Amino acid sequence: MGVSGLLWAVRALVILQFVTGILGWGKEGHYATCKIAEGYLTAEALAAVKELLPESAEGDLANVCSWPDEIRFHYHWSSALHYVDTPDFRCNYEYCRDCHDSSGRKDRCVTGAIYNYTNQLSSLYQNSKSESNYNLTEALMFLSHFIGDAHQPLHVGFLGDLGGNTIQVRWYRRKSNLHHVWDNMIIESALKTFYSSDLATMIRAIQNNITENWSNQQPLWEHCAHNHTVCPNPYASESISLACKYAYKNATPGSTLEDDYFLSRLPIVEKRLAQGGIRLAATLNRIFASHVKIAQA
Ligand SMILES: [Zn+2]
What PANTHER family does this protein's entry cite (predicted)? Predict the structure, then answer.
């Protein structure tokens, strides 16, 4: 291997290191989002979802909600679809300005992917299933995953720090980066501290919050303006706003994040998991309701 070859290898390694970190809520976060969604599916949507699930799901959508992270190296083209970056220190998001990949190709970002996979799944019920050119099992798994990702505040973060990936911090005594803290560490610490290391218990607590404390907000979360099937733009706007207010705040490079940060940010994380779940269910309900309407017409 010549010097240029070696340089290339080093660069590839550095990029890989970043890429592995920018791909979404960790396994627990995606599982929670999809598990919450399952509880709000209509009978029609649940039947359609079950029909599309791969065998490996064992009938449970939550089991395959991390699949897009597992195949990210095999499906190289998909890695830009897990997030969207805004210009540095801009706490707002605009689809036209921000939704593109690093080569500038339009619509290649998390919100663009949510539109794309919603359209693919909707086409199932506008044409007959056998005529669809898309792999709708994959479309369902991508859509379920990306709606979760769009709710992780740092999946709509600044371009210059790759959504917090280049901000090295300590999470208590462990070395980490800010993006990883929001993907994994806050949830992991919450599991250990409050939920006896049991994800099902944490999910039940979030479900109770939805029915008890957030019940008046739930219809607003579900609502899409102009009767649209899916509306990822407000989710991304909320995320960058939360990233500025909570994720980036008091988390400069080299800082140690401990109880103050953990306890004040955990409610944000839990609410985002709830919103992601409710909105995934609402989207799937709308996609698969058109089935019934067309069949009746
Ligand atoms: Zn992801």
Answer: ENDONUCLEASE 4 (PTHR33146)
User: Does residue 126 register a pLDDT over 80?
Assistant: no
CA nearest 232: which of 158, 136, 148, 289? 148
Nearest to 206 by CA among 151, 141, 260: 151
Taking only the tens place, the pLDDT of each residue in 149-197 is: 999 999 999 999 999 999 999 999 999 999 999 999 999 999 999 999 9
Burial (CB count within 10 angstroms: exposed 0-12, middle 13-18, buried 19+), residue 195: middle
Q: How far, in Å, is the centroid of ligand 1 from the Cα of 90?
A: 22
Task: Give the environment of ion ligand 1: residues with CB less than 5 A.
Answer: 23-24, 82, 149
292 alpha carbon – ligand 1 mean position (Å) = 31
Residues 241-294 pLDDT 10s: 999 999 999 999 999 999 999 999 999 999 999 999 999 999 999 999 955 555
Residue type, 119: N
Is the whole model's pTM more than 0.85, yes or no?
yes
- Residue 10 CA to ligand 1 center (angstroms) comes to 24
Q: What angle do CA 122, 135, 287 make, to 5 degrees?
A: 15
CA distance linking residue 251 with residue 26, whole number of Å: 20
Distance 68 CA to ligand 1 centre (A): 7
Q: How far apart are the CA of 70 and the centre of ligand 1, in A?
A: 9
Residue length of the chain: 297
